[in-house]
Amino acid sequence: MSTNVLAIAGLLPILVALVLMVGLHFGAAKAMGIAWLTCALSAIWLWGLPPSYVLALSLQGVSSAVSVLIIVFGALLLLHTLQYSGGMETIQRGMESISKDMRVQAIIVGYMFSTFIEGAAGFGAPVALAAHLLIALGFPPLAAAILCLILNSFSVTFGAVGIPIITGFGASLQAFIEGAVATGSFQSPSHFLKVIGQAVALMHIPMVFILPIFTLGFIARFFGPNRSWKDGFAAWKFCLFAATAFAIPFLLFAWFMGPEMPSIAGGLIGLAAVMFGAKRGFCVPKDVWTFGEVSKWEKEWIGDSGAGEKVGCKPQTDFLGKRGVPSNLQDPEKEDPECSIKSPMRQFTAWMPYVLIGIILMLTRIDLLPLKALFNRYGVINFTDILGYKGVNENSIKLLYSPGTIPFMLIAILTIFMHGMSREKVAKAWRETFVKMKTAAISLCASVALVKVFQGSGNFTNPELIAQLSAAGVDSNILSMPRAMAEAIGGIVGSVWPIFAAYVGGLGTFITGSNTVSNVLFAQFQCDMAELQNLSRIVILAAQGAGGAMGSMICVHNIVAVSAVVGLLNREGDILKKTFLPFLIYGIFVSIVAYMLIAIGCFAF
Length: 605
Known about the structure:
Order of helices and strands: HHHHHHHHHHHHHHHEEHHHHHHHHH
Number of strands: 2
Oligomer: single chain
Low-confidence stretches: 305-342
Strand order of the largest sheet: 1-2
Distance between the termini: 32 Å
Radius of gyration: 24 Å
Largest sheet: 2 strands, antiparallel
Helix content: 55-70%
């Protein structure tokens, strides 16, 4: 069978997922399930693989997904616990007292706060939380949704303690990484993933500085009273201050610690620095900019959210928990008793769970400390030679080392006592977490199972497995699905692949709703493309990771979720039109950095 035919057949499951999710608006769980079935049937009929082997690969994918689901469960449990304890409300209200300038508020909430939440929780939480808070501060719902989607990008690669890199690449490239370690190119699988994280961080840095300025100009142009880019650009000093406060810890943690901490550290340290500076007027524009009177807003900006009613209610506590007097932004001299909602706890108490998470993650991720080795040694679940097929293994379920258990679940339980939660609220937090896990579990298991079949369909390397499959009549020289696609596409695009690599990652996130799943889907394909074009595999994989992050701007899942939060359902198309331009611009800068890294040769592997 020709390479082109195999490439088309390999592309079919991805096209099925795209058509079902984007064209027919299927949910991810149903769409990815059908896509997995398409991939499995192609593997059996066209590649001639035994059904039992395809089942073994699928079970390998499910076992890989379990490790991710543990993290997802822990992250959601912590988030819901903080929401029901009142901790998240306290955090949000503390931010309201910093500045009346909505450009400053946009950077603090949409950039810094969202980045921190992405690093700690991920999975759509940052966009929903930040957009909700911005509306409470008086932002038009449509502007809040677009702003949060655009700025929730560079942190996504390292979102939810590095899952897109650790699992996205670790689970899908397990055999390749083990081979790279065996040759001495890397000290360990974690070292391989750390190097990818270093390259990704460098690719994000230009947009870390450019995107905030662009976004404020963009929002001022389409939603400001004067419809002027200049009104947004006028806050460029504050944007650069925020970008610097984020970029320094972001780079340092990516370079020296690994992929778990860059977004958490950059977001938390940057947020503290920016809020401290903003309260003291550092780099804050002299004029106070707002979106103007609500009565002059265009109707389509508001949707069904009811925005404009008692907007701008000020908190009774500032960031340090000191008492203040609530007021209404529309009339600062007039108190509004209906806006006076007591903050349930002090800021220090509300932030303590996140502080503890940062401390525990650092203590368990530093190589020089004993906890990392200890957690990696105990509580590990391995699956080897699944259904008797040699080399079909899964070694990634680490119950102690998984951030889902320690620190997320641990801190969620401790928060019950720190925040004095009632049994009813605890039950609601756990119940909501389990409900939301159902769809995530189905879609993720189907996605990773698809990828394992995708990768295991050919290019066999294990001699014992080759013997087993040859005895069953399988052509041991047949190309795998991603390899066939790489060879077919490589013949068309040639050495200019770095231009397309990031956009492929973005397409994956657009389809699946997840940077992690995008990396799982396309990691092997990107790796094969790099090898065929004699390009650095680290750089191309990093471009895939960066592209998957920028794809969160146009991700259908995120757009639908934030539309529901801000009351703009059925307006998803309008949002996508606005976020598509920054998505394209982001890809250009990622491509430029990719070419520079290849030319310099600092990531030669």
